[in-house]
Amino acid sequence: MIIVTGTKRSGTSMWMQILVNGGFAYIGEAFPRDWGSKIRDANPEGFYESALAGGVWWRTNPSPRTGAWLHPQSVEKYAVKVFIRGLARTDFAYIGRVVATMREWRQYEASLRRLFRIQAKNRGKEFDEKKVAPLPPGFDWWLENYELIRDIATRRYAVHVLSYASLLRKPEETIAKVFDWINLGGDKKKAYEVVKKELNTQRARQGRAFKSDFAEIFDELYHRVDKSRPLDKAFLDKMNETHVKIVEIIQEVAPNYLRIRERMEDLEPPPQDGEAPDGGEKAKNEKPKKQVSQAR
């Protein structure tokens, strides 16, 4: 499968839109459930999520709703959004090409809180930041991206890691490189039409209110990805040391957070109906433990 991954609010939806517009078969819906009426403002061009957002593994394949089973060979040319936690538990046989997108951590914080506010407003509730964002700024971002790098280093699948900003800076060049790397064709011209810079609602200057004692290493990780610089051993060692400190802090300020995250309660897949994809048709349905030892 062509897996699009990243944190929430990192550009995964845009990459799905790019692949869909470029002619790739896909799994998911632009607006699952009632998202079109509830949170369209957060992503007006569509989310393209499915029951596989939490991973392609025994809990989602066969489908608990329909019993349909996706054979690895039948979906190898399909694009699907799978968040980082889900990618880490996706069966290796389903991982063909992975497009991983990373957003600057301050923009991520601002965009995520914007999404929470939209959700609260549509539910007629007051936005309570302590409940929806219990961790210090950047910690969620770190946990997700650290796990991504650890998974890449451990399982060594084919992956293209890039920043959301690099796509906005040079959309045609970036999309062309990714399409050539995927090597399954696709209409690049139509794919280019998806990128609309005005949809980037959270600029860096809007996120500067978010401060962190770990801002320096957060920034360094992001800039290495943004500039396509390697993660050398010295930096990976620094990442591992930082991760231990962050986990210790989380256990103090939000003791249940890691346990809840391990159960993936925040990634319950939206209910979907329909058959498993086949024949090239578009489908309608469907506490980190180890340190990073190496990365490519």
Report on this model:
With 296 residues, the chain is of the alpha/beta class. It has one domain: Rossmann fold. Helix content is 41%, strand content 8%. The protein is built from twelve helices and five strands. The protein has a five-stranded parallel β-sheet with strand order 2-3-1-4-5. Strand 2, helix 2 and strand 3 form a beta-alpha-beta unit. Helix 6 packs across helix 11. The protein is globular, with a radius of gyration of 18 Å.
Give the end-to-end Cα distance, rounded to a whole number of Å.
21 Å
Please mark out the parts with pLDDT under 50 across 5 or more consecutive residues, or reply none.
Answer: 265-289
CATH T-level fold name: Rossmann fold
> Which percent bin holds the helix content?
40-55%
* Number of helices in the DSSP assignment: 12
Radius of gyration: 18 Å
- Based on DSSP secondary structure assignment, what is the total number of beta strands? 5
The geometry reads as globular
The largest sheet, given as strand count, sense and whether it forms a barrel, is: 5 strands, parallel
Regarding CATH, which class? Alpha Beta
Structural class determined from secondary elements:
alpha/beta
Task: Supply database-style keywords.
globular, 5 strands, 41% helix, Rossmann fold, single chain, alpha/beta
